[in-house]
Amino acid sequence: MKEFINSLRGDKVIWAFVALMAMLSFMPVFSASSNLAYMRHGSGNAFTYLLKHAAQVFVGFFILYKIHKVPYHYFKTISKIMLPVVWILLVYTLLKGTMIDGANASRWIQIPFIGITFQTSTLAAIVLYIYVARFLSKKRETPITFKASIWELWTPVFITLALILPANLSTAALIFSMVLMLVFIGKYPLKYIGVILGVGLVSLVFFVLVAKAFPGAFPNRVDTWISRIDNFATDKPDEDDYQIEKAKIAIASGGVYGLGPGKSVQKNFLPQSSSDFIYAIIVEEYGLFGGLFVLGLYLLLLFRFVVAAHKSTTLFGKLLVVGLGFPIIFQAMTNMGVAVELLPVTGQTLPLISSGGTSIWITCIALGIIISVTKKEEEIAEDEAEKAKREAALQKLIDKQLEEDELEEEDFSIVENQNPLDVVLNK
């Protein structure tokens, strides 16, 4: 085990945070999965779900380990190749979205033969962030112009968002906001960002108006997320109120110290208690201290991402860390905001803690790339240290040789200054 830990490269603090969050996830997932066990199997035995979660975490860490060994500059080319692939997957998802527990889950597709459901929008987000970082980090003889960036940058962005939006507004909004943050950090002209923001908002409003004018015209979840926004803004009662009320009861029941591990009551009534609303279960069982502890872990991880971005010596590396790391934290804050009714119900999971293979695996891919960036900086530092060590050893040899030459010169000068008669007598 010690040898395996020593073989891990890159930022050890990020590795530690990821491992800690993964280990902490087992107790709330095991506890919150009991309602799924009742609904699907008629018993409260959630051990099967615990094993499933353990397998998903194991696969996730395997993915992370393999990804972190890939030199991060390879992802420039990979993103360009993968972008058309994710567009095809998104179109397929819109047309063939699967049903999960009888509900419309058009954000997901089922992988043939193995029966695993997969959320394509999360993969599309990773690929798009890398693609945008690639564009911003390209070496240019002239500054970026709006006209030149329309086709190469914004057209792929809006195609991706247009394919995600009908099924998943929250993910589309998250991706769009993260792309805007990324181009801002990448020193894309601010006036052009304002234009793009305006175009994006106008396009969204137009889409919503069309969807309202022709109800049921879109064979996806458009009506669902439009009604969620309307009800959140007007406080109209709907089915989401049930989830929010149960989440708030769970949080209030937890108090300061919590009911104790596995003693949640609302897990038996709260839908998606092991994924979308797992934060409410954590606060109910571990109290305010447990909720703040989880929040603190994400904030510390954010700080570590900032440190990693600052240490990177290339613009592409900096943008990768920001573009892949910040969405993880933003998604976590969104999940917590939904649990306390600061935001409408979005369906965003709590990264590294909620159950769900897609969320865990995509998060591990993003973290693997981030650690790959830090690994490169570590290798550069090691090379510089080795170079300094070799230079010090060479300098030591030179100094030693100079000392020997000085001693020989002193001996020669002594002999040269002696009287020849003294030399003969000495012999």
Automatic annotation (TrEMBL):
Residues 371-410 form a coiled coil. InterPro entries: FtsW/RodA. The chain crosses the membrane at residues 12-34, 46-65, 77-95, 107-132, 144-163, 169-185, 192-214, 277-303, 315-333, 353-373. It is a multi-pass membrane protein. GO terms for biological process: cell division; peptidoglycan biosynthetic process; regulation of cell shape. GO terms for molecular function: lipid-linked peptidoglycan transporter activity; peptidoglycan glycosyltransferase activity. It is found in: Membrane. It catalyses: [GlcNAc-(1->4)-Mur2Ac(oyl-L-Ala-gamma-D-Glu-L-Lys-D-Ala-D-Ala)](n)-di-trans,octa-cis-undecaprenyl diphosphate + beta-D-GlcNAc-(1->4)-Mur2Ac(oyl-L-Ala-gamma-D-Glu-L-Lys-D-Ala-D-Ala)-di-trans,octa-cis-undecaprenyl diphosphate = [GlcNAc-(1->4)-Mur2Ac(oyl-L-Ala-gamma-D-Glu-L-Lys-D-Ala-D-Ala)](n+1)-di-trans,octa-cis-undecaprenyl diphosphate + di-trans,octa-cis-undecaprenyl diphosphate + H(+). Its EC number is 2.4.99.28. Pfam families: FTSW_RODA_SPOVE. One of its GO terms (cellular component) is plasma membrane. Keywords: Cell shape, Coiled coil, Glycosyltransferase, Membrane, Peptidoglycan synthesis, Transferase, Transmembrane, Transmembrane helix. Its main location: membrane. PANTHER family: CELL CYCLE PROTEIN, PEPTIDOGLYCAN GLYCOSYLTRANSFERASE FTSW-RELATED. Belongs to the SEDS family. FtsW subfamily. This is Probable peptidoglycan glycosyltransferase FtsW.
